[in-house]
Amino acid sequence: MKQPIKIQHLVNWFYGNYCARKCYEEIEKQRDHWNKLQKLAKKMEEVEMTHKEFLLMIRNDKTICDLSDGEWSKRKWSWKRDDCIICKKLGVRL
Description:
- This protein is 59% helix and 4% strand.
- By secondary structure, it is mainly alpha-helical.
- The chain has one domain.
- Strands 1-2 form a two-stranded antiparallel ribbon.
- The protein starts with a strand and ends with a helix.
């Protein structure tokens, strides 16, 4: 069984793995999500849960992230942006 993790860790993990990747073209939306996630972390400071429980909570709540089920399952990667310096140095073209 997976160990429960502090909510602040889960918020940071979610932002980096979901918000930054799925909404990489929408900086303002990312900022809004970051602020909402930080408020959630502050409210639930003492709560611990698994990654799976946290994802289910976020997906069911729809106040922080309003992605549809189809968008949740799509893979979007921020490194596919045209202005990525690392991609340019490696010669990766999209």
